[in-house]
Amino acid sequence: MNQVLLIDDDVELVGMFREYLEQEGFRVSCAHDGEAGARAALSGSSAIAVLDVMMPHMNGLETLRRIRARSHMPVLMLTGRGDDTDRILGLELGADDYVTKPCTPRELTARIRAILRRTNAPRGDGDGVTINVGKLSMQPAQRRASWDGAALELTSTEFNLLEVLARNAGRPVSKNDLSEQGLGRPMARFDRNIDVHLSSLRHKLGTLADGRSCLQTVYRLGYQLIRD
User: Fold this and answer.
1) Which of 222, 214, 106, 142 is nearest to 174 (CA)?
2) pTM for the structure as a whole
């Protein structure tokens, strides 16, 4: 699928993004308020939603809550420069990534492609097997994960990051490697994306026999999934 859903009340900006995306081979649909955007996202016709935070009546964060209550489709947030609180809250609510406005259509398109490339990446023969790390089980080809037999409800980015950690279980993985392999882009300066996503994963994953989290921070090296 290459259908992109743009949810933003700025009609002129949406028109500019739409024209550029269509020139790049995407099919584009638009919604100009949160209510209509949530309905369009939950219809299942789009591969990814691009969602602005600042909208009247129902803002982007509430729209994201409604989407995440019923869908794990990738969501790319548009945030104002310096809106760190909204940016972090959006990630905590399940956004896959964010772009700071003002941004160019080229940058937006690159972020969309990075997310879809990771979400829809073709799997090789070796990816048909199950990855088992302690009580964690992952089937990358089916994009399914479970802990002690119970299904894990993960966003596309959380799944990507957990897969990277599972394939490197017992070894620390740097934040930049996680960003490049999980988000499809190098980590920007002062970027807290990885920290927020992994904090969410800690809450979703179970603990080790001694009560510790299976996902540990390794000082100056990154993050490590503990083998147990």
Assistant:
1) 222
2) 0.83
